[in-house]
Amino acid sequence: MECIVRNIPVYYETYGTGTPIIMIHGYTPDHRLMTGCMEPVFAQRPGWQRIYLDLPGMGRTPASDQIQGIDDMLDLVVAFIDAVIPGQPFLIAGESYGGNLSRGVVQRKFAQFSKLAQPFTRPVLIFTGRQDTVVGYRDAWNILEQYPRGTFAVLDRAGHNGHIEQSQLFNAMIHEWLDRVEETL
Predict the structure, then answer these.
(1) Residues 6+ apart with CB under 8 A from 49
(2) Where are the alpha helices (DSSP H) in the chain?
(3) Which residues of the chain does CATH 3.40.50.1820 include?
(4) What whole-number distance in Å separates Cα of residue 184 and Cα of residue 19?
(5) By CB distance 3.0 to 4.6 Å, which of 29, 96, 98, 118 could disulfide with 24?
């Protein structure tokens, strides 16, 4: 499918029906990074509409001069969400750069409902690899206080692609996160 956002044709794929989950891949791959690790989780879990987009310049979404940095990318992702699921509550999941964008979306969307800077009190999962030489895991620990319902996992024998290197643990942790989310719906 395609959604025109700020004159950019953003490619995305949707699976299932129910509560929307926006899935954002890391820097340089495309939506298949997320479908590959997330769709096996949802094979036995109905009630979720998964929306996987290709960020500009990656996958089937063309690059654009409008995207000059992460703030521009975040603006586009927020506009995409507003266009595809206007006004709906949703979950968000991201890998690497997509995780950074996900945090930005939460900050922006949460700020719409709360004028005060507060911790985000919904269930959160931060999944890291002990042997991640790309971004490491220690800096992620520093943001945990912003998420009082956050689970923080550092997995041994996992680098930057822990969802692949430790797929069984990843799947179990995603299921546990979704269980906690379902308790709040």
Answers:
(1) 14, 15, 16, 17, 18, 19, 20, 21
(2) 32-42, 70-84, 97-113, 138-141, 162-165, 167-184
(3) 1-116
(4) 12
(5) 98
Structure tokens at 54: 């290709």
pLDDT single digits (tens) 13-49: 999 999 999 999 999 999 999 999 999 999 999 999 9
Which residues contact residue 107 at a Cβ distance below 8 angstroms, ignoring those fewer than 6 apart? Answer: none
Tokens 């004159």 belong to: 7
pTM attached to this predicted model = 0.95
Which amino acid makes up residue 161? N
User: Tokens representing 6?
Assistant: 């700020």
Q: Which residue is it, tokens 């692949």?
A: 164
Asked if the 1-116 domain carries CATH number 3.40.630.30, the reply is no
